[in-house]
Amino acid sequence: MAVACLPEDGGEVVLVREFDGGRDRPGVEQVERACEVGPSGGKLCLFTDLLGDPLCRVRHSPAYLMLVAEAVGGPLGTEIVGVVRGCVKTVACGRSQLFSKVAYLLGLRVSPRHRRRGIGRRLVERMEEWFREMGAEYAYVATDRDNEPSVRLFTGACGYAKFRTPSVLVHPVFGHDLAPSRRAAVVRLDAREAELLYRRRLGSVEFFPRDIDAVLSNALSLGTFLAVPRGTRWRGVEGFLASPPASWAVASLWNCKDAFRLEVRGAPRLWRAAARATRAADHAAPWLGIPSIPNLFEPFGLHFVYGLGGGGPAAARMARALFRHAHNVARRGGARVVATEVGACEPLRAGVPHWPRLGADDLWCIKRLADGYGDGALGDWSKAPPGTSIFVDPREF
């Protein structure tokens, strides 16, 4: 890959090049430690620990690349001052049987000392060159809706348009199990059954990955679960698809805990003390079911719920049963929160238990990279109205 240069600033030159795992890992980790995730400048900040693998958030995708910005000739010699990751895959466009090759841009970081010098924009532009080489028709990026510098960068300097407004919903894992639903039964599907159900029922949802089989069979995928009204006779997935119950919901679990950890910094001492008190009370009297707050002020892992879908008048209730099950799986697996991301109009959103203070409102921005690709029946996807649901690929969460 050709090396790109940024203008000199006080004798310092910044080069954009491909990530070299043999020598860049310490520098990338230092940039990650210095950069918060989410709204910029808040008192509470979220930081990421990549557990020694800077590629962890893209390496499970069909095609991926990581770029670094390297400062040369500055007061500290040579140092990594910026990073970005990207991947390319084929996804559904929200219309039956229409797929598009899209690129996803994630993990853009620029060290605080080197911001406002165009480094982030140059990293994005160089990544977009690779996207075009890979034949991607669109590029999209997710950022926190309240992160004004990030939103300005993408919608201003980089030419992206605001596209979708999903929300990240987060629920803490208590020190006790949640009681299973009395109205729903949860059935575990194997990978073949899950793939068949997803392709038949969610195959046209926006961003549904064509290689869903690779997602479901990944070692980080903890299984797919189907909730149906209690008392429903289970006749296998073929029988379910031929004659589904009046209401149902499906979701899969992904083990982010073994890929990366998060840490909340900047919390007041009073908050920390209150969280410790809830944990102590839950440990002493688990039968009371006290909503205890796990320790989020040191690196912690999470489980991600993806592929949420369903149907029928009680679908939200079925989804709630799935999330109770997901909570208990996370507790046994050592995760401290369960998270999911849903579209603004997701009909099952009412069934997702979450604590608003722990979540975030996302903004997905999209950019058409080139004309002449894809199915002419699609038109310009970037101008299409939103559907009711989106499929959030756990490989890039």
UniProtKB/TrEMBL annotation:
<dbReference type="InterPro" id="IPR052810">
    <property type="entry name" value="Plant_NAT"/>
</dbReference>
<dbReference type="GO" id="GO:0016747">
    <property type="term" value="F:acyltransferase activity, transferring groups other than amino-acyl groups"/>
</dbReference>
<dbReference type="InterPro" id="IPR000182">
    <property type="entry name" value="GNAT_dom"/>
</dbReference>
<dbReference type="InterPro" id="IPR016181">
    <property type="entry name" value="Acyl_CoA_acyltransferase"/>
</dbReference>
<feature type="domain" description="N-acetyltransferase">
    <location>
        <begin position="14"/>
        <end position="179"/>
    </location>
</feature>
<protein>
    <recommendedName>
        <fullName>N-acetyltransferase domain-containing protein</fullName>
    </recommendedName>
</protein>
<dbReference type="Pfam" id="PF00583">
    <property type="entry name" value="Acetyltransf_1"/>
</dbReference>
